[in-house]
Amino acid sequence: MRERRSMAHGNPLSRTTRRDLLRIGGLGLLGLNLTDLFRAEAAEIGHEDKESVRSPIKSCILLYQSGGPSHLDTWDMKPHAPLEVRGEFKSIATSVPDLRICEHLPRLASMSHRLGIVRSLHHRMRDHNAAATETLCGHTPLEGDVIFHDGPNSFPCFGSVLSHLLPQQGLVPPHVALPQVVSRGGTLPGQGPGFLGAAFSPFQLAQDPSAANFGVPELTLPGNMTLASLEHRHDLLRQIDQQVKAAETRTAHKSMDLFRERAFNLLGSDAVRRGFDIAQEDGRTRDRYGRNKHGQSLLLARRLVEAGVRFVTVNSIGDPELGGGDDWDTHYQNFSILKDDLLPKTDQAFSALVEDLADRSLLDSTLIIWIGEFGRSPHVTKAEGGGRDHWPDCFSAVLAGGGVQGGCVYGSSDKQGAYPDTDPVSSGDLAATLFWRFGVDPASLIQDRLGRPIRVSEGEPVRKLFL
User: How do beta strands 375-376 and 311-316 pair?
Assistant: First the structure.
């Protein structure tokens, strides 16, 4: 097993110069654009850090494990710890020497040479809502650990930031989220565009891809309308917009126009239609992913990446009929819920996604991130069926594709999995890694609604995870 024990940093002078240029608007004054700047930076540091100079990825699939998976029962097991720490599960060997993971992840164990495991993630948010903002936005919420919903000045999610910074790719939506919005008495924070505004919202799916009647209403033309007649209406609406422009505020008009363009683009894009048409997928492939909501959601994510979607978020929700909760929030019956529902589905669908992308030569250009908002407590509680509570002080994430060095474990936790022991990784560091792999400088600035500059990430890329 190859372990990386230190985090690589870019050239400090290069980072400072880049921030200064962005703050003073120096790019325009010097006749440069972001592409020029990134190219110049790569040339500058190439002789010092060849690992940071590689082709940017084209897409990312974020597998969000709502509720917070137990790292101690999945990727960072402690077989030599007392029973009240190590729990009921045993570890098994993997395709990587000296690397062991949970016995209920046999397929992923056999392909661990394609995975990169981070065992030293941490933050301070102990509530689901605030922790979700840490995970899905890479920032600590301004409200601290007490947050109920997103507000007008909330941080935007990764897909919204990328939609804002990177150019539109043809007619396909830049960010798709599926198969449902995560809710906890209300929409979980961190899933939307925040202060960037509704124009950068994800295209949110709210249907079960495993259902026999699965379809996307937004891709269905009303009545007997054809694409030709739709285009005619589009032209008429453009003329009307020009006539009423003086009666609308500039911001409102821009947002409305973007929403209208999105709707027409979806209806007119053959690639989008094919991507969502999961019924056309080979039956054996559908079986490989698992004929359930989670498995077919990951298959749909692969189809969307093929269609050119840049960022796909798949929200993982378990089966509430199994008791103890409907996701990874296992305060009760931790081991039975993991064993009977969540781990088998994860093992089947996640491994299928990695294999499928590799077979289609899409794995190198697609980064997969498997992560929850935090981990679970080192000690098993005496709750019904044995439970584990929220634990943000140390938890794990798994990456694959996108240049990830397979078989690599970055960072480590202490003997009980309670705190990072080596190479701690913050939520900001993981966010910086994601943006860096897209070719976006983590020090890039975006503006909130008050015009204040905000870095897209406060961390540094974990370059040692990549080839």
Answer: unpaired
What's phi and psi for 447, nearest 5 deg?
-110, 140
DSSP one-letter string for 186-226 = SBPTTSS-GGG-GGG--EE--S-TTSTT---GGGS--TT--
Alpha-carbon radius of gyration of the chain: 22
Contact predicate 389/453, CB 8 Å:
no
Write down all domains in the chain, each with its CATH number in brackets: 2-215+271-465 (3.40.720.10)
> Looking up tokens 């039956």, which residue turns up?
283
Predicted TM-score of the model (pTM): 0.83
Q: Which carries the bigger pLDDT value, residue 318 or residue 184?
A: 184
Please choose, from the candidates 314, 318, 63, the residue with its C-alpha nearest in 3D space to the C-alpha of residue 181: 314
Alpha-carbon distance 450 to 222, whole Å?
A: 40
Q: How far apart are CA 297 and CA 206, in angstroms?
A: 11
Across 285-322, b (16+ Cβ under 10 Å) vs e yields ebebbbebbbbbbbbbbbbbbbbbbbbbbbbbbbbeee
* pLDDT (tens digit per residue) in 28-41: 433 444 444 444 44
What residue spans of 117-181 are helical by DSSP H?
128-137, 158-165
Q: Which of 140, 146, 149, 135 is nearest to 185 (CA)?
A: 149
C-alpha–C-alpha distance, residues 389 and 330, integer Å: 7
pLDDT tens, residue by residue, 193-223: 999 999 999 999 989 999 999 988 777 655 5
Q: Cα separation of 342 and 39, whole Å?
A: 43
Label residues 100-116 b or e (16+ Cβ within 10 Å = b): bbbebbebbbebbebbb
CB atoms < 10 A from the CB of 46, how many? Answer: 11
Structural contact between residues 166 and 447, judged by C-beta atoms closer than 8 angstroms: no
Closest CA to 177 of 305, 319, 301, 263: 301
427 contacts 457 by C-beta, under 8 angstroms: no
